[in-house]
Amino acid sequence: MSNERTIVAPFVFDGVQARLAEQAGFEAVYMTGFGTAAGFGLPDLGLLTMTEMVTQARRIASAVTVPLIADADTGYGNPLNVIRTVEEYQAAGVSAIHIEDQVFPKRCGFLRDKEVIPLDRMVPKLKAACENRDDGFVIIARTDALQPNGWDDVCARAEAFIEAGADVVFVDGITDERALDDYCGKLGHLPLLYNGMLEPVDDLVRRGFRIVIHPGTMLRHFEDFGSSLNHLKQDGQISLSRQSFRHAVAALGVQETLELGARYDED
Fold first, then answer.
1. 251 by DSSP, 3-state: which?
2. Cβ distance 196 to 54 under 8 Å?
3. d(CA 209, CA 192)
């Protein structure tokens, strides 16, 4: 992953979404915890295990050639658990993970009533992650302290995270333009990740974010799929382009896979 320019990674939670993102020209994809939990029919409230998250990460990583950034929740325990988490995500083919400072069970970063662990409990987890990773594996330190504690605590945590060895800081729960301005103004000297849709990507790039993860694709999926189901239920049909099936076949690489198999067919 480049350290010189902004990496834009759309939210994905399965292999076909990841393939479509790569085919659209994105240079990385982001495995969302919210979307992954939704794929199980569950809310993003810390209900999935590390094994379930890693299994999905492996599926996504194997579907694309671009780097995969993945949600690793709270690291699933103490520093020893975090070391195991890093090992498992690396073995799954993931290029970067973010670990957050929420109390377990955690919740989606845009929900209210979040709680965070003390800084002196988070720092050892980050040190464990950073000291036991492979070269090139990126550790993103996420804090959810803004809503419960305010900017002073967020800034103290961000500086400590970088000192502990994290490559990028991720302040979640940025819900308005003022908070976005504060994020850049107070922490712009650090490598930052932004999660959200408050501004177009070009504006976020100009703000200097190292990584932008964009939830719009995931949220549109819920909206569009729900709308299609309603049309099917109410109207008995769904309007589609004649090319829809061909597009799906092409996205999944059907022809290329058949051609590969044909190389090994017996005469």
1. helix
2. no
3. 5
Is residue 232 left, alpha or beta, with left meaning phi > 0 and alpha meaning psi from -120 to 50?
alpha
Rg value, the chain, Cα: 20
Distances (CA, A) of 218 to 13, 22, 194, 245: 8, 15, 16, 21
Q: What is the pLDDT of residues 171-193, one digit of tens each?
A: 999 999 999 999 999 999 999 99
**Would you say 89 and 54 are in contact if contact means Cβ atoms under 8 Å apart?**
yes
**Residues 69-116 pLDDT 10s:** 999 999 999 999 999 999 999 999 999 999 999 998 888 888 888 999
First-to-last CA distance in the chain?
45
**What CATH number has the domain spanning 7-224?**
3.20.20.60
Q: Select from 122, 108, 110 the least CA-distant residue to 179.
A: 110
